[in-house]
């Protein structure tokens, strides 16, 4: 379905925001083989069930656990919130500070981290230093989270939208098995909705 939508209205990229497999790293090659069928650039973040070391992650996905990149006037940050033991972690604060500073002149910054870092859900972590850091950069438009597979909404903390996506597979959580589309328009407004996987649901703006 993602490829079909991409053929109609091309995506800049697709993001798989953690929990790509469930604990057993022997499943990673098969998961990568499946995701390599995507017809566009894709990125991955490390979830608590993605139990690889940073070195193993680099070898498996050909990208680091923490990275930033730009597309035109927009900056994107991907940061790990776990490790090879599945521990819940705050994102690396030094990496986040350096990345936010590097992207401060961009029109927008979008952050992708698996575990919510401001304790907005039962299974979140509390990273007050990260929240204070994010608040210093008004061009941070949204923080995208996975992890809470029963959450598919947007929660706001100190005027920062935290966007939750439940899952595109698995058996626990919401009823949908789909993906979120985020569109950034020329007036810098943002619309987002979930495809379930063909029905549009939960349409809103950020």
Notes on the protein architecture:
This protein has a 6-stranded mixed sheet, with helices on one face. The chain has a 3-stranded antiparallel sheet with strand order 9-10-11, with no helix packed on it. Strands 1-2 form a two-stranded parallel sheet. It starts with a helix and ends with a strand. The protein contains 5 helices and 11 strands; from the N terminus they run H-E-H-E-H-E-E-H-E-H-E-E-E-E-E-E. The chain is α/β, with parallel strands linked by helices. The chain has helices at 2-8, 28-35, 54-61, 93-102, 128-135; strands spanning 14-17, 42-45, 67-71, 74-79, 108-113, 140-145, 154-157, 160-164, 179-184, 190-195, 200-205.
Task: Write a short abstract of this structure.
By secondary structure, the protein is of the alpha/beta class.
SSE blueprint:
Blueprint: H1 2-8, E1 14-17, H2 28-35, E2 42-45, H3 54-61, E3 67-71, E4 74-79, H4 93-102, E5 108-113, H5 128-135, E6 140-145, E7 154-157, E8 160-164, E9 179-184, E10 190-195, E11 200-205
Parallel strand pairs: 1-2, 4-5, 5-6, 6-8
Antiparallel strand pairs: 3-4, 7-8, 9-10, 10-11
Helix pairs in contact: 4-5
